[in-house]
Design brief:
The chain is an all-beta fold. It has one domain: Superoxide dismutase, copper/zinc binding domain (Immunoglobulin-like), CATH 2.60.40.200. It has 1 helix and 15 strands. The structure holds copper (II) ion.
Length: 220
C-alpha cells in the first residue's frame, strides 16, 4: 500500500492520519547527538523528539562539503558507534522486526528507514541544510522498537541516494556522516519547531502501513 498525503500551508505541514494505530509511548522523550564526518569533525547535530505521532528526526548540517547536492540515504543504524572513516562500526539498519530495506519494499521497511535527505545545490554550497522526518517505526520510549537497545543506535547519512527498495541499504553508497544517538533529559515535551523556509513537504505511508513520514526540504 502506498499513499501520499501532503498539505502545505505557510510552511506548516499538516498530516492527517487515517485509522492508523499509533504506539502508546508517552510524548516528551528526547535524544540526539553530534553528526561527524569521516575524519571525526563535527558537521552538525541530530535531534529526536518523541511525539504522539511518532519520533520527529531533525538533522541540521552546518558545514558544507560533506554532502554533495542531491539525495542521500539516511537511516537509524543498530549500533551506537561512529568510527570513521567508513562508519561500519554503526552496524546495519535498526531492524527489530526483521524486515527488508526500503520504504517502497513490499517486504520492508526496516524500522530505521527514512526518506532521502535532499540537499539542494545552493544550500550545499553555503552550508546549512535541514532534514526533518517523523516516523512511528521507532520509539524513544520502552518497547520492541525502542532505539535504546543494549548496542545503542546511530544515525548515518550516505553518499548516494537511497532507492528505498534494494536490501540492505538501497544502494545508497558509502557512509559519510554519523551521529551516536543518546537519550537526553526531556524538556518541555514540545516537539522542535519547523525550520523556516521549508519549500515542500510530503507524508508517506510505508509498505505495511505502519509508518508515516513528514519531510521538510531545504530551500535548494
Ligand atoms: Cu544507512
Amino acid at each position: 500500500m502506498r499513499r501520499w498525503l501532503a498539505m502545505t500551508t505557510f510552511g506548516t505541514v499538516l498530516v492527517f492520519l487515517l485509522a492508523m494505530p499509533l504506539g502508546t509511548s508517552a510524548a516528551g522523550e528526547q535524544a540526539g547527538g553530534t553528526l561527524i564526518d569521516g575524519t571525526g569533525t563535527p558537521i552538525g547535530t541530530v535531534q529526536l523528539a518523541q511525539t504522539a505521532n511518532g519520533v520527529v528526526v531533525t538533522v541540521n548540517v552546518t558545514s558544507a562539503g560533506t554532502l554533495a547536492p542531491g539525495d542521500h540515504g539516511i537511516h537509524v543504524h543498530a549500533v551506537g558507534k561512529c568510527d570513521g572513516p567508513d562508519f561500519t562500526s554503526a552496524g546495519g539498519h535498526f531492524n527489530p522486526r526483521n524486515k527488508q530495506h526500503g520504504l517502497d519494499n513490499p517486504n520492508g521497511p526496516h524500522a530505521g528507514d527514512l526518506p532521502n535527505f535532499m540537499v539542494g545545490a545552493s544550500t550545499a554550497s553555503q552550508g546549512g541544510y535541514t532534514f526533518t522526518a517523523t516516523t512511528n517505526m521507532i520509539t524513544l520510549g520502552p518497547g520492541p522498537t525502542s532505539i535504546f537497545t543494549a548496542s545503542g543506535s546511530a544515525l548515518v547519512i550516505h553518499a548516494g541516494k537511497d532507492d528505498e527498495k534494494t536490501d540492505p541499504a538501497g544502494n545508497s553508497g558509502a557512509r559519510v556522516a554519523c551521529a551516536v544517538l543518546t537519550a537526553k533529559a526531556a524538556t518541555s515535551g514540545t516537539p522542535p519547531s519547523a525550520p523556516v523556509g521549508s519549500a515542500t513537504a510530503a507524508a508517506k505511508t510505508g509498505g505495511d502501513g505502519r509508518a508515516f513520514f513528514i519531510r521538510r526540504l531545504g530551500d535548494g
